[in-house]
Amino acid sequence: MTLRMVRRALTAALATVTLTATALTATASAGTDRRGGRHDATRAVMEAEVKAGTPGILGQVQDTYGTWNASAGVADLATHRQRLPRDRFRIGSVTKVFVSTVLLQLEAEGRIRLDDTVERWLPGLVHGNGHDGSRITVRQLLNHTSGISNYTEDPAFRKIISTGFSEHRYDTYTPDELVAVAMTHRPDFEPGKGWHYSNTNYIVAGMIVEKASGRDYATEIRERVIDRLGLRSTTLPGTSPRMPSPHGRAYSKLFATAPDAKIHDTTELNASWGGAAGEIISTTGDLNRFYRALLGGELLPERQQRELQTTVPTGDGTIGDGYGLGIAWSTLSCGRTVWFHSGGIHGSTSLASATPGGGHTAAFNLNSDWRGDLPALLEAEYCGSAPAAATESTKSLARLTALR
To answer: How far apart are CA 192 and CA 194, in angstroms?
Structure first.
């Protein structure tokens, strides 16, 4: 899920991770691509990620020239299997884009308004320690201007999903329990008076989907997005800890920043602690199809499409140049604009992106959570080369995090 705190805690380890020589062997496989070496820069960044310590990285690009699939490193440190285009992985906070899309569809049907208050739909839920659901709108949930505290930043909860992971990996959490954790803290700011990435916003948004539709948010996402687009490898696991096949392994250092910190296999976990903020499992191909449809206007009427892409500044530059309703945008060093979201959960770091209109999409996944130069991947794919020095825009992208 975007475990914003995961990225913060693990940033110090990025340049110092080492793995076995076998794990550092980079391989890549290209699919249909009529542009020859157009993806050389992207391939180079992927291979650099593996040399710097990522076990494996998987990527797919779709545009008018065709589909390009590539991988570097391995899917499994024990068997050294290569990562494959059909491999599934946990997408973390890219889940938020699916939830936002469903809420906007419900608005288009007149079943909810973006300016409705949380209190109208969920009386008494967001209350206490200065939180007041009667002053927070659905729109503010989706663009992270609600001020609601982020439950994944709670010290006790953070301990459960880091050093306590082995003991708690199969625990089930309800949305009410997650929101209750957030309510033990003061708001970050008054509603509409700031910006702060909060997973609690999307837990609440998922609960509103259920109230407005009369069905659970997973069913709404499946019928309105997954089935409609034929995303056959995209699933919402609920409380099931298992990954559907085919899939590689997921590896985590559980927040430890020491270069020689132990690497844990975190493939199996109960993602209910992320819920509507980050539980979905998918593939690079399905993510590209989703982003192409969403940015191409296939899923939303024109008015809701404008709402989706109406952004607010993040203030601290945490996520690109602006954040809309579950999706962010940034202008790269070459002047091209991309829409995107990252996602991070134990052992998995993902990125889904598209140009305006959805004509050029790119999705990537790293089977680790302690490093990942996502800005370099965007720069390489959309500009043709990774900048020697990070621009202000790419510095902000580097801080984009998931359930985070």
So the answer is: 6
| Residue 34 counted as domain residue | yes
Cα separation, 329 vs 341, in Å, equals 8
Q: Which residue, chain included where needed, has tokens 């500044």?
A: 313
In this structure, is residue 403 part of a structural domain?
no
| The token pair that represents 379 in the structure block | 């720069």
pTM, entire model? 0.90
Residue 257 maps to a domain: yes
Q: At what angle do helices 284-295 and 95-108 cross, to 10 degrees?
A: 30
How far does Cα 275 stand from its chain's mean position? 13
CATH at 331: 3.40.710.10
Cα–Cα distance measured from residue 241 to residue 271, given in angstroms and rounded to the nearest whole number? 7
Q: Which residues are catalytic?
A: 93
Its domain, for residue 64, covers 4-398
Task: List the chain pLDDT tens, one digit each, 404 residues.
Answer: 433 333 333 332 222 222 222 222 334 444 445 455 789 999 999 999 999 999 999 999 999 999 999 999 999 999 999 999 999 999 999 999 999 999 999 999 999 999 999 999 999 999 999 999 999 999 999 999 999 999 999 999 999 999 999 999 999 999 999 999 999 999 999 999 999 999 999 999 999 999 999 999 999 999 999 999 999 999 999 999 999 999 999 999 998 888 889 999 999 999 999 999 999 999 999 999 999 999 999 999 999 999 999 999 987 656 778 999 999 999 999 999 999 999 999 999 999 999 999 999 999 999 999 988 999 999 999 999 765 544 444 444 444 443 55
Vertex 365 angle, CA 199 and 362, to 5°: 95
The torsion angle over the Cα atoms of residues 61, 62, 66 and 71, rounded to 10 degrees, is 20
- Could you tell me the CA-to-CA distances from 366 to 167, 180, 212, 248, 382 in Å, in that order? 25, 32, 36, 11, 19
Domain total in the chain: 1
